[in-house]
Write a structure and sequence with these properties.
By secondary structure, the chain is mainly beta. Among the domains are: about 90 residues, no CATH class; about 45 residues, no CATH class; about 40 residues, no CATH class; about 60 residues, no CATH class; about 170 residues, Jelly Rolls, CATH 2.60.120. The protein contains five helices and 26 strands. The strands form six sheets. Strands 16, 18, 19, 21, 24 and 26 form a six-stranded antiparallel β-sheet that branches. A five-stranded mixed β-sheet has the order 1-2-3-4-5. A five-stranded antiparallel β-sheet has the order 17-20-25-22-23. Strand 18 and strand 19 form a beta hairpin.
């Protein structure tokens, strides 16, 4: 029935019309009142009652509009069976929605939307699937275990990323997709444009890596540069390659190309091969050269073992050659001399001297003496040396010096077991008037940290007595508590009784300019004596201990070590 007011009327008349209308439609299953007010007429009443005489037998509805097209009309209905209102169009709430009861957004009951600072301790849950806003974590959580507050469990929903073997053809910005073929996470950075997620350059990945260590989980790591170079560069730090494999090929460097080679340039620091117990082998099928363009070329065994020169195969020889011919080969050992067996007609250096037997003096044989000497005749070298000694021995001792620059002879780097973290470098000071090779020790530790460089050498055959020992040093500050250099001299000739005999020491040396630490000859002669005085052939050990503490200007350096001696 159409109710269409055309003018303002009294409330009593409206109620009368409504009553008549309801009475007329009473027999229908549902009471419907149609409101259509095209000219903004007002209906004013404190209350309107629709379907008051239905006695619970019919539903009631209000229709807004009476258009021929039914979808252009709106209806609000009251279902007496479910006791619920129904709206057949989308509903806009402009004034806000307030409810103290359950707000049901689906056919299932109990889907309550509310908020709490800590839902797992403060919010109860009556029905699984209820939704709550966690105001502490700023996220939605779903009830997964119903119960009272403290028993109910609220969990954040699991986010599932779309996956597939190929990237979708279309996407919207910020969409995420995981490609199962390339195993790569993609992000839609622009409409229909997929990009790999996360940083892609090596520097960005390294900056985000937690431990800065590439772990391949026991798999192989390969770097293939194709036709390019593979460069490892450090500015001031060391480049260290360490292998934990227990085999002689733990670190394998190869130039696989038949025409390729391996070229190493180790600068002024030198090349050091060292091993606590292992050995090393250098082999080549062609001609090979070991060349020291300046300085001595030393082959040494510091603790045990022999230095062996071996040429295998028929017709192979070992050749000693020196263009200066002044000292082509020098054999020096006061205990055994030169012990060799030569076939007939094939003596050592036979182009210069001949080898003859002797029954007097030390050594297994004599090297022949050329004819024409003024004070000796014959080929007895022992007699020749005695004659020379008689001529020069009356003028007193001659002073000579053993001088060693870094790297010291037969040196090792030793840690005493605590506070030994730091960096030991070798460098060169080419300042005007300086020109020194040196070791340098630095650390970033807040407490004083130290490292030892131990070296040893054998007193020469003409050694008679020791003179002063000196060591050139420099530190970053003049305060020994921040950086200093200690040096200790020991006699390690006979270790059967235990520790080496300490001869003397110079400690707490600190100076910002190059200075000299000295251990006097009197101290060395007294300290090194032990059971017997120092003799030619004794082994002397130099222990230089560097100390440093964290600081931008602190360091400890040591350079030339010198031992004066009388011969």
């Amino acid at each position: 029935m159409l109710f269409k007011p055309t003018r303002i009327i009294s409330i009593s008349r409206v109620l009368l019309c409504l009553a008549l209308s309801l009475a007329i439609v009473q027999p229908a299953l549902a009471s419907v009142i149609l409101f259509q007010d095209d000219t903004f007429q007002d209906v004013m009443s404190d209350a309107l009652r629709l379907g008051s005489n239905d006695a619970g037998s019919s539903n009631t509805s209000i229709q807004f509009g009476n258009d021929i097209t039914a979808t252009e009309n709106g209806n609000i209905s009251w279902d007496i069976g479910t006791n619920r209102f129904g709206v057949d169009h989308a509903l806009d709430v402009t004034g806000g929605l307030t409810s103290t009861g359950t707000v049901d957004f689906s056919a299932a009951s109990g889907n309550v939307l509310r908020k709490a600072a800590a839902p797992n301790t403060t919010a109860s849950c009556a029905t699984l699937g209820e939704v709550i806003v966690n105001t502490t974590a700023n996220r939605l959580e779903v009830c997964t275990v119903a119960g009272a507050a403290g028993v109910a469990v609220w969990s954040a929903p699991t986010v599932t990323v779309a996956t597939g073997a190929t990237d979708p053809a279309s996407c919207s910005t910020s969409a995420i997709f995981y490609n199962t073929t390339s195993n790569v996470l993609k992000v839609c950075t622009a409409t229909d444009t997929w990009s790999i997620a996360g940083p892609q350059d090596l520097e960005s990945v390294y900056a985000r890596d937690e431990d800065k260590i590439l772990n391949t989980s026991n798999g192989n790591l390969g770097l293939n540069t194709g036709t390019g170079n593979f460069d490892v560069t450090t500015t001031t730090g060391k480049a260290t390659i360490t292998s934990g494999k227990a085999a002689n090929n733990a670190i394998d460097i190869q130039a696989s190309n038949a025409a390729g080679g391996i070229n190493a340039n180790w600068g002024t620091g030198g090349l050091n091969f060292s091993s606590a117990s292992g050995a090393f082998s250098i082999r080549g099928t062609g001609n090979s050269t070991v060349n020291a363009t300046s300085g001595n070329l030393n082959l040494q065994t510091t603790t045990s073992g022999n230095v062996a020169l071996t040429a295998t195969g028929a017709g192979k020889t070992i050749t000693f050659s020196d263009a200066n011919v002044t000292t082509p080969v020098k054999f020096s050992n006061t205990a055994t001399g030169l012990n060799a067996t030569f076939p007939a007609g094939a003596g050592i250096l036979d182009a210069i001297n001949s080898l003859a037997s002797t029954t007097a003096g030390e050594g297994a044989s004599n090297v022949g003496v050329a004819a024409g000497l003024t004070n000796i005749s014959g080929s007895d070298v022992q007699a020749a040396l005695a004659s020379i000694d008689s001529k020069i021995g009356t003028s007193g001792a001659n002073v000579d010096t053993l001088t060693y620059n870094p790297q010291y002879p037969s040196y090792i780097v030793s840690r005493d077991g605590s506070n030994n973290n730091g960096t030991l470098d070798m460098d060169y000071d080419n300042s005007t008037g300086i020109n020194k090779q040196y070791y340098e020790w630095t650390t970033s530790n807040a407490s004083l940290s130290d490292i030892d460089v131990k070296s040893s050498f054998v007193l020469p055959a003409d050694f008679v007595s020791t003179g002063n020992f000196t060591l050139a040093y420099q530190t970053g500050t003049a305060t020994a508590a921040n950086n200093k250099v200690d040096v200790t001299i020991s006699n390690v000739t006979d270790l059967t009784a235990g520790a080496p005999t300490t001869c003397g020491a110079s400690t707490a040396n600190a100076s910002t300019t190059w200075a000299t630490a000295t251990i006097p000859a009197a101290t060395l002669n007294t300290g090194c004596t032990g059971a017997t005085a120092l003799n030619a052939g004794d082994t002397v050990q130099i222990d230089v201990k560097f100390y440093d503490i964290s600081g931008s200007t602190t360091f400890a350096r040591a350079s030339t070590a010198s031992l004066a001696y009388n011969n």
